[in-house]
Amino acid sequence: MAIERTFSMIKPDATRRNLTGAITQMLEDAGLRVIASRRVWMSRREAEGFYAVHKERPFFGELVEFMSSAPTIVQVLEGENAIAKNREVMGATNPANAAEGTIRKVHALSIGENSVHGSDAPETAAQEIKYWFSDTEIVG
Ligand code: DGT
């Protein structure tokens, strides 16, 4: 399997509870390397742009409100099979369904306040990385 890159975000519910280090440690323990990282307090407009694919969903307003309610940590992760590996360590969207030992099982509060985001495919990973980072900020 080739080395892949994926986009990860530590969400406001987690930064509020001072879990940036604990969550990053879980990513690193899974074999993922943090090759870019920045703390951002996104505007509503940035949140709407980032989550544009969900704009018709009933929870879109709530999602944008939440994502712009406190700082997030945006990251690029690199490793073998990084996209799938990150999704695995994140666990299911709803923490009630997440497997033992996953980030969402351990830390998430609800389906909305679910501590982390991770790209779900190579195309979205490339788009999401580009949304938040310039090439010079990524140091592999
Ligand atoms: P991600 O990685 O944040 O894109 O989440 P996924 O791919 O695990 O889940 P997805 O794409 O179905 O939903 C994107 C985000 O939208 C999810 O992380 C939290 C939020 N969300 C999804 N379903 C609900 C819901 O029923 N209520 C609320 N408030 N938020 C939701």
From TrEMBL:
Major role in the synthesis of nucleoside triphosphates other than ATP. The ATP gamma phosphate is transferred to the NDP beta phosphate via a ping-pong mechanism, using a phosphorylated active-site intermediate. GO terms for cellular component: cytoplasm. It catalyses: a 2'-deoxyribonucleoside 5'-diphosphate + ATP = a 2'-deoxyribonucleoside 5'-triphosphate + ADP; a ribonucleoside 5'-diphosphate + ATP = a ribonucleoside 5'-triphosphate + ADP. GO terms for molecular function: ATP binding; endonuclease activity; metal ion binding; nucleoside diphosphate kinase activity. Belongs to the NDK family. Transmembrane segments: none annotated. One of its GO terms (biological process) is UTP biosynthetic process. The active site is at residue 117. Its cofactor is Mg(2+). Homotetramer. This is Nucleoside diphosphate kinase. Pfam families: NDK (PF00334). It comes from Mesorhizobium amorphae CCNWGS0123. Keywords: ATP-binding, Cytoplasm, Endonuclease, Hydrolase, Kinase, Magnesium, Metal-binding, Nuclease, Nucleotide metabolism, Nucleotide-binding, Phosphoprotein, Transferase.
